[in-house]
C-alpha cells in the first residue's frame, strides 16, 4: 500500500531564501572586512609617509641653518668680490708714463698728470670696455711743439684719443745758475786786471730772463687691456 503525502509543497523561493540570505550577509561581512583592512593599511602608510616627510623637513632646516653665513663670512666674501673687480680692472701704467715722458720735447715740461675719479667710475663689465681718462698739464716753449706732441701720442697703440681742454699763454722767468763768491772774486779780479783782487763776500748775481710759454691741458683717453686686444 502506497503512502500519500497530503502536505502542501514548499515553494522553491522559500527553499533558497535562507541560503541566499546567509550568502549575502557573508559577502557583505567579507567586503566590510576587506574595506576596513584596506583603510587601516592606507592610514598606516599615510602615517609612515607623513613621518618621513617631517624627518626630511627637519633635515632641510638643519642644512639651511648650516648654510646660513655669519656676518664675518659675508663681509669677507664682499671684500673678496671687490678685490676681484680691482684685479680685473687694473692696468699697467708704466708704458703710459714712459710714452708721455719720452715724447716730450726738450724745451717742454710736464706739470701735472692725474686720473679724475669722477670721470672714471668704472666697475664690473664696463671696466673692460671703457677707456680711462687722464688729465695732463704740459708747458711748451712753442705752440707748434704741442701739435707734434699730440700727434706722437695719438700714434701710440695705448692711446684711444687726445683732446685739448685749454691753452693758456703766459710768461715764465728763468734765472741762470748762481756763481759762488770765490768764483765771483776771480772773475772780477780778471776783469780789472788784478789777479790778487779781493772782494770778500761778493758774488755775481744770476741774470734772469723772461720767456713766453704755453700751458696746455690735455685729456687723454687710455685704452684698457681689453681694448688693446
Précis, in short:
With 229 residues, the protein is an alpha+beta fold. The chain has helices at 12-67, 71-89, 94-102, 143-154, 181-192, 225-228, and strands at 109-114, 132-140, 159-175, 208-222.
Short descriptors:
4 strands, alpha+beta, 229 residues, 2 domains, rod-shaped, four-stranded antiparallel sheet, single chain
3D structure, described in words:
With 229 residues, the protein is of the alpha+beta class. It folds into two domains: 10-68; 91-228, no CATH class. Helix content is 49%, strand content 21%. It has six helices and four strands. The chain has helices at residues 12-67, 71-89, 94-102, 143-154, 181-192, 225-228, and strands at residues 109-114, 132-140, 159-175, 208-222. Strands 1-2-4-3 form a four-stranded antiparallel sheet, with helices on one face. The protein is rod-shaped and about 180 Å long. The N and C termini lie far apart (135 Å). The model is unreliable at 122-127 and 194-204 (pLDDT under 50).
**Mean of the pLDDT scores?**
77
| Number of helical regions | 6
Number of strands: 4
Distance between the termini: 135 Å
What is the helix fraction of residues, given as a range? 40-55%
Largest sheet: 4 strands, antiparallel
Q: What gross morphology would you assign? A: rod-shaped
Low-pLDDT sequence parts: 122-127, 194-204
Strand order in space, largest sheet: 1-2-4-3
Radius of gyration: 53 Å
User: Into which percentage range does the β-strand content fall?
Assistant: 15-25%
Structural class, from secondary structure content? alpha+beta
Element pattern in H and E = HHHEEHEHEH
Overall structural domain count: 2
